[in-house]
Specification:
Layout: E1 16-18, E2 25-27, E3 30-36, H1 47-52, E4 58-65, E5 76-83, E6 87-88, E7 91-92, E8 107-113, E9 116-121, E10 127-132, E11 137-140, E12 145-150, E13 156-163, H2 171-176, E14 180-184, E15 190-194
Antiparallel strand pairs: 1-2, 3-4, 4-5, 5-13, 6-7, 8-11, 8-13, 9-10, 9-12, 14-15
Bound molecules: D-sorbitol-6-phosphate (S6P) and zinc ion (ZN).
């Protein structure tokens, strides 16, 4: 069968890709960041244990595919986070945690590998916690601060997608804390304590 060709559209590879084994992103418009213990003063409860640890210890790495300018309304971003296993005085390694600068912007997280806890905090102070594991899907509602702790003994990998006009507000969590901490409980398993 023959087609009347008006115009051919060239078939191209997309500008970015996800390695489905490591969830490492490759391509253009990627932004990467790495947080070491020394970059995270004041977020763990046990300041003495924190002071005794090597500040160069890597806690987590983030890669984000940001194909539009930050602040663009209607766009989307895609990211992966890898949190190393470890604790500071029995409190699991975790992300800084944030709400969105445009607080009415929601986000998806999904578990890729490892075990973790997603802490969620509403402006009214309600705290929820969801278990993260390979394949878990987490809808982070608008107006909800979020932080992730790695409760396993291997790196925790999770993916995220959020609006390109969401932005980040770290100041609120930094000054007020999260209201809950994920720690090793008496039985040696993760426990969430309200503080
Ligand atoms: C962005 C999204 C994630 C986090 C990342 C690190 O909205 O929630 O990419 O940035 O997991 O967490 P944090 O709290 O240090 O930004
Ligand atoms: Zn977010």
């Amino acid at each position: 069968m023959e087609f009347d060709v008006i115009q051919r559209v060239s078939l191209i590879d997309p500008p970015a890709a996800v390695n489905l084994h490591t969830w490492h992103l490759e391509g253009t418009n990627l932004v990467e960041s790495l947080k070491r213990l020394g970059d995270l003063p004041g977020i763990f409860r046990d300041a003495r244990a924190f002071a005794l640890m090597d500040p160069d210890t890597v806690v987590y790495r983030v890669q984000a595919y940001m194909p539009t300018t930050e602040g663009t309304e209607g766009g989307l971003y895609f990211g992966t986070t890898v949190i190393e296993p470890g604790t500071v005085g029995g409190e699991y390694f975790m992300t800084r945690g944030h709400s969105h600068a445009r607080a009415d912007r929601a986000e998806f997280y999904w578990g890729v590998k490892g075990q973790g806890v997603l802490l969620l905090l509403t402006p009214g102070g309600t705290i929820r916690a969801e278990r993260i594991s390979a394949g878990s899907l987490h809808y982070i509602d608008a107006n909800t601060a979020h932080r992730v702790a790695n409760t396993g003994d291997e790196p925790l990998i999770f993916g995220a997608s959020w609006p390109s006009d969401a932005g980040h507000n770290y100041a609120e969590i930094a000054s007020q804390g999260f209201g809950a901490r994920v720690v090793i409980g008496a039985s040696g398993t993760p426990e969430i304590i309200v503080v």
